[in-house]
Amino acid sequence: MMISHQPFAGFEEWIRLPIMAIEDLQHAVLGAQLDVAQLSGDEIGGSLMFSHGVDKTFSTARIDGNVSLLGSLPETRITLGIGLHCPPGTLLWLKEVASGSTSVWLSGETYDAIYRSGSTYLTVSLTEERLEELAADLDLVLDAKQLGETRISSRPLDPAALALLRKLYGRLHSGEWSEALAPSYIGELALDVMIEHYARKPRIMGEKRHDVGFARIVNRARTYIMEHLDAPISIAELARASFTSRRTLYRAFEDLLGETPQTYIRNLRLNRIRHDLTSAHSDGATVTDIASRWGVFELGRLAGDYRKLFGEVPSATFNRYGTLCATLTNMALCA
């Protein structure tokens, strides 16, 4: 059945399916090809939930009964997983896992799990490029080297994060909805938690010697960014314009500027917006007009990023300079 909430941009509706028989678990991870087996005479039950967006897919299950899931995961996507609740005897690749365990599957790798009654898990599948971009949005680095091979993480999830996710996904499977508990929100929250778990902070400038070609790469990228700052800029496009790979592009920005390409672009746009906010009163533009001029349409996110960089929200800058301009106009000093 379809969940009753307003869909968020970029997401389809979430789907909730009751688990009535062992065959229902063939789709326990959306996009995978799973062989399933019932391991005891206990009644099979629980629920499956999915959300398939443009660039990522969430799957979560609460399983009643003892089952085995074995098969190949999506060929073109990386899959990250969290064991939200793992009763004793829960196995992944025949290794016992506890609640809070996290796992990485590279594209097309084997999902081999034995779940005990009461298990709850969550997975998200997305491309390596998209994962790097989302990590960069959080000012973190998460590339193939950082992810490593298909594996169970040696570190359990942060206990506070695990407790929050268990509470939210427990409500999700129980059908307890509210505006404050939008399904897309908890999907994004879980993904952020997984990224923060696996990613690292960018290296500090001067931590290592600069590659001689990095300056050339960054200069080409900066030129392209300046020419396209008012339009969407993907990492793939930026890498092509810089005549390099995405991975080397990240390394060059991180080594020379101490930040990711996305952070550089975001901060440059914020500075352009601030410049226009301080001179917009003569042309009647609003904060929304100015933000959209530079390709920024999510005003809530703009306010947070702007405050983080400048210590105030855009409207405060706009209003302060509007008052100043009015005063100077009365003095015949502001056009």
From TrEMBL:
InterPro entries: AraC_XylS_family_regulators, Homeodomain-like_sf, HTH_AraC. Keywords: DNA-binding, Transcription, Transcription regulation. It holds the Pfam family HTH_18. Residues 219-320 form the HTH araC/xylS-type domain. SMART domains: HTH_ARAC. One of its GO terms (molecular function) is DNA-binding transcription factor activity. This is Helix-turn-helix domain-containing protein. It comes from Croceibacterium salegens.
